[in-house]
Amino acid sequence: MNLVESLGTHRLLAIVRGKNSAAALNTVRTLVEEGIAAVEVSLTTADALSVIRQARAELGPGALLGAGTVRSAEDAARAVDAGASYLVTPALVDGLEAYGVPVLMGALTPTEIELALARGADAIKLFPGSLGGPGYLRALRDPFPDVPFVPVGGVDAQAARDYLDRGALAVGVGSPLVGDAADGGDLNQLRARAAEFRNVASGGTP
């Protein structure tokens, strides 16, 4: 799987984080059913590795199912063993290249971006994106024209549209999309939010 190409096609990464493992698994299922191709399960989710393992078994080897909040090589090893096909970090993390899967590495400043690229990042998770907003991404495009950026943090539907218009490869969306679904909330409301974000990712207006 080429993570960058996939994100460039679908332009949306859903981030699942919750206190209820069964609800988190149902959230992953629902997002995929609603056409959200790339889903990340945060390792801060209750029994996250079991959620990833079960989702992988159900969705098959080709699903864009990743692990997020990977903060160490040990986290990465456990996530890949559970079935994660890519890793997402909140910050700079060493040693992830050993696991042979794509890495979306967290960075914010130009120096951090260079360090992430030197560590083999396939794309940059611009985090927390809410600190600079779409205007900050636009400023980064001049010195980093070829770097694939995925802003994460406070990305609602309008911000998603603005980031994509300013050159983001894709956007990573957590609570504005998932809401309380991964804690046992209403899946019908999740389906409605998924439709809204899928529309924005495909070029529509919020």
Structure write-up:
The protein is α/β, with parallel strands linked by helices and 206 residues long. Helices cover 43% and strands 16% of the residues. It has helices at 3-10, 21-33, 48-59, 73-82, 110-118, 133-141, 157-165, 175-178, 187-201, and strands at 12-16, 38-42, 64-68, 87-88, 103-107, 123-126, 149-151, 171-173. The strands form two sheets. It has a four-stranded parallel sheet. A four-stranded parallel sheet has the order 4-5-6-7. Strand 2, helix 3 (48-59) and strand 3 form a beta-alpha-beta unit. The longest helix is centred in the C-terminal third of the chain and has 15 residues, at 187-201. The radius of gyration is 16 Å and the shape is globular.
Care to give the gist of this entry?
This protein starts with a helix and ends in a 5-residue tail after the last helix. 47% of the residues are buried.
Top keywords for this entry?
206 residues; alpha/beta; 4-stranded parallel beta sheet; 9 helices
Structural class: alpha/beta
Which oligomerization state do the chains in this entry correspond to?
single chain
Number of strands: 8
- Beta-strand content bin: 15-25%
> What is the CA-based Rg, rounded?
16 Å
Element order, helices and strands?
HEHEHEHEEHEHEHEHH
Low-confidence stretches: none
Outline, from the CA principal axes? globular
* First-last Cα distance: 30 Å
Main sheet characteristics: 4 strands, parallel
User: Mean of the pLDDT scores?
Assistant: 97
Helical fraction:
40-55%
Number of helices: 9
Strand order of the largest sheet: 3-2-1-8
